[in-house]
Amino acid sequence: MDLKKLSQDIAIWRQNKNFRSERMPQEFWRQAVTLSKIHGPIEVAKAIRVQTSDLKKRINKSGAPIFHPGSGQKKKKFAKLIPPSTNDASKFEIEYNGITVRFYK
């Protein structure tokens, strides 16, 4: 299943539908939900020209988790900050990659 192919199929369906208010076939929605697991709902919604919120409703009804591109690909790193044990603990600075972050008490 290909996002470009689905987009083309939906465009053809839109050109040939009988009524302007005719609902999109369920098979197209099922394919869109499946492709959302790969590309994310925003990209799929843009490609097939539907509201992202409508696609997300379909995803929620299907029970499939909503995929967010980029999530899970990088592990988040956390650092525990321990202020220095000096008498002047009113200011604490951290410098990383040329960026300085200052914390004030």
Helix and strand layout, with pairings?
Layout: H1 3-16, H2 26-39, H3 41-48, H4 52-62, E1 91-96, E2 99-104
Antiparallel strand pairs: 1-2
Helix pairs in contact: 1-2, 2-3, 2-4
Q: In brief, what are we looking at here?
A:
Strands 1-2 form a two-stranded antiparallel ribbon. The protein is α+β, with helices and mostly antiparallel strands and 105 residues long. It has four helices and two strands.
Q: Helix- and strand-based class? A: alpha+beta
Give the overall average pLDDT: 83
Total number of helices = 4
Largest sheet entry: 2 strands, antiparallel
Question: What is the end-to-end distance?
Answer: 56 Å
Strand order of the largest sheet: 1-2
**Low-confidence runs:** none
> How many beta-strand runs?
2
Tell me, what's the shape? rod-shaped
**Strand coverage percent:** 5-15%
Order of helices and strands: HHHHEE
Radius of gyration: 24 Å
Secondary structure: helix percent: 40-55%
